[in-house]
Amino acid sequence: MVSDNVIIENAIRLVGEGMRVTFPVKGYSMLPFIIGSRESVDLVKPGTPKVGDVVLAWVEGCRYVIHRIISIDGEQVTLMGDGNIAGVEHCMVSDVKALAVNVVTPGGRHNPLYAPWRVRASRLWWRLLPVRRWILAVYRRTWLRVVT
After folding, report:
1. How many of the other CB atoms lie within 10 Å of CB of 56?
2. Is the dihedral of CA 37, 35, 41, 57 positive or negative?
3. In angstroms, how far is CA 40 from the centroid of its own chain?
4. Confidence class for position 1, pLDDT limits 50, 70, 90
5. Are 71 and 89 in contact (CB under 8 A)?
6. How many Cβ atoms from other residues are within 10 Å of residue 146's Cβ?
7. Could you read off the pLDDT of 69-101 as tens digits, one per residue?
8. Sign of the CA dihedral 20, 118, 94, 97?
9. Judging by beta carbons within 10 Å of its beta carbon (0-12, 13-18, 19+), is residue 145 exposed, middle or buried?
10. What's the CA gap between 24 and 40, in Å, rounded?
11. 44, 53 in Cβ contact below 8 A?
């Protein structure tokens, strides 16, 4: 069986060659903007990373994540999943391997991650960090059960 890291590294290689790669997302760390195990993301070669970008990055020197950049200090990047209520990951700018540009639904629709409404919603979501726990609990118990 092929390991996840081998698959991810092949996707990174293709992205580095200029190809767009549709990549499945696992887990719920990017709720409510990306539903893991249901939706995928389109990955492209990253430019200069910016706060708010959703990226595939090698973090803490041990694993890959698809999370949002919440701060950049020189070469140090801090990421956090939208569905997380605490905890961040760190990497270097050089560890940002791909930029997610679309959310791909099970029906094959490619929805831009940086459409104006999504950018505004993600900024609002960041401000709601102190109450995310309760919003996510309701979301998981209601909406996720409807769509999965």
Report:
1. 24
2. negative
3. 10
4. confident
5. no
6. 6
7. 999 999 999 999 999 999 999 999 999 999 999
8. negative
9. exposed
10. 4
11. no
* pTM confidence score: 0.93
- Tell me the sheet residues that pair with 44: 99
Write out the H or E segment, with its range, that includes residue 6: helix 4-16
Which residue do the tokens 């890959």 mark? 64
Q: In terms of DSSP H, where are the helices of 28-131?
A: 116-127
Joined together, the tokens standing for residue 116 give 């104006």
Residue type at 33 in one-letter notation: F
What are the tokens at 114?
Answer: 């940086």
CB 58 within 8 Å of CB 64? yes
Q: What is the pLDDT of residue 30?
A: 96
Residue among 45, 78, 103 at smallest CA distance from 67:
78
